[in-house]
Predict the 3D structure of the following.
Amino acid sequence: MAEYVPVPIEAAKRIAEDYDKEQVIIIAYDDKHQLKHCTTYGKTLRDAALAAAVGAHLKAWLGFPEEYCKVLPARVLKAIEAFEANEEK
């Protein structure tokens, strides 16, 4: 069996660019591997956070494990860390 390949964020970004959308949420199912997958993309940090929140809600509704329903995009986490580091100064 071929290795499982999730939908990359770059694919969601291409959809956003090709169709002029600010947020993209992709829910996919791989029958061969019996896996559900969610990929989100947002044009801005705000859009990324909102898309991730919608993705988390959909993942919870679809029965994803709870730890997968609370994940923030890496660039949102970096922005939060930078903000908190700046607050400490």
